[in-house]
């Protein structure tokens, strides 16, 4: 598979289902949390990489910062644009090949976005390149051991094999992995494990059905095994068991993520 074909497949995956619903109904609190952790303030030039529909870009713009929201999937950008925030520009862009000048931003952030770029070193290099010396890089990423990381682990046996060189998204939630990606090119690093409370689903089955209907990566896996009813049933069961394992009572779950910030060295 060529890189162009891989990116085309990623665009189609994130355009499927209804990621705007997932962003608005489940993970919306992550954006403001990241904006606060990154110290976004009025007058700053901010880039949100893999911004989706703007969960971090919109609250960043609300501080008075000049924000550019970039994403590979134009369908998500169009939804974000309808939110019509001032001081916010929407740009279609690949996180592994950002069309922005070197050192062009005071802060570069990504909220459960850049972690899905398949080539981690390329994406990390781009975050560093477009951030000015002394500027902030801020990330919120699902951890490997948390609920979403474990969901990807549960889906892996049913998914199409990843292309050569692609790395699992939840690695971005491992501080050691980020240390390897950024090395001594950042300083003043903070890495805190946080939990997002999700209480929308009354039953494990309700969670499974919601993600089968709305979440692009889950939809893609089910399409891969659509012709095999036994494997489809097995994945149905695996997702229900996962939600049951993380249930803290009444269907509520805590989804762990890593909140990470650092400053680019001069």
TrEMBL record:
Ranges for domain Methyltransferase: 46-135
GO terms assigned for molecular function: methyltransferase activity
InterPro entries: Methyltransf_25, SAM-dependent_MTases_sf
Keywords: Methyltransferase, Transferase
UniProt keyword annotation of Secreted present: no
Keyword Methyltransferase carried by entry: yes
Signal peptide interval: none
Gene3D superfamilies documented for this protein: Vaccinia Virus protein VP39 (3.40.50.150)
A biological process term (GO) from this entry: methylation
Protein name: Methyltransferase family protein
């Amino acid at each position: 598979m060529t890189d162009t074909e891989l990116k085309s497949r990623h665009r189609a995956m994130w355009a499927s289902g209804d990621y705007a619903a997932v962003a608005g109904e489940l993970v919306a609190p992550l954006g403001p949390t990241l904006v606060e952790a990154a110290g976004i303030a009025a007058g700053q030039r901010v880039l949100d990489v893999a911004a989706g529909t703007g969960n971090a870009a919109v609250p960043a713009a609300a501080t008075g910062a000049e924000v550019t929201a970039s994403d590979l999937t134009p369908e998500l950008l169009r939804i974000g644009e309808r939110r019509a925030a001032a001081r916010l520009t929407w740009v279609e862009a690949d996180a592994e090949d950002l069309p922005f000048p070197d050192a062009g931003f005071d802060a570069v952030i990504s909220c459960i976005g850049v972690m899905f770029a398949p080539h981690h070193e390329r994406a990390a290099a781009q975050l560093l390149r477009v951030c000015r010396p002394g500027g902030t890089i801020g990330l919120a990423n699902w951890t490997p051991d948390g609920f979403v990381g474990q969901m990807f682990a549960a889906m892996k046996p049913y998914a199409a094999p990843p292309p050569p060189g692609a790395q699992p998204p939840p690695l971005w939630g491992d501080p050691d992995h980020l240390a390897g990606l950024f090395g001594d090119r950042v300083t003043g690093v903070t890495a805190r494990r946080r939990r997002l409370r999700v209480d929308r689903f009354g039953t494990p089955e309700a969670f499974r059905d919601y993600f089968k209907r709305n979440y692009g990566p889950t939809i893609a896996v089910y399409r891969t095994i659509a012709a095999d009813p036994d494997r489809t049933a097995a994945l149905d069961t695996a997702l229900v068991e996962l939600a049951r394992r993380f249930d803290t009572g009444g269907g509520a779950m805590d989804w762990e993520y890593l909140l990470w910030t650092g400053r680019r060295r001069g």
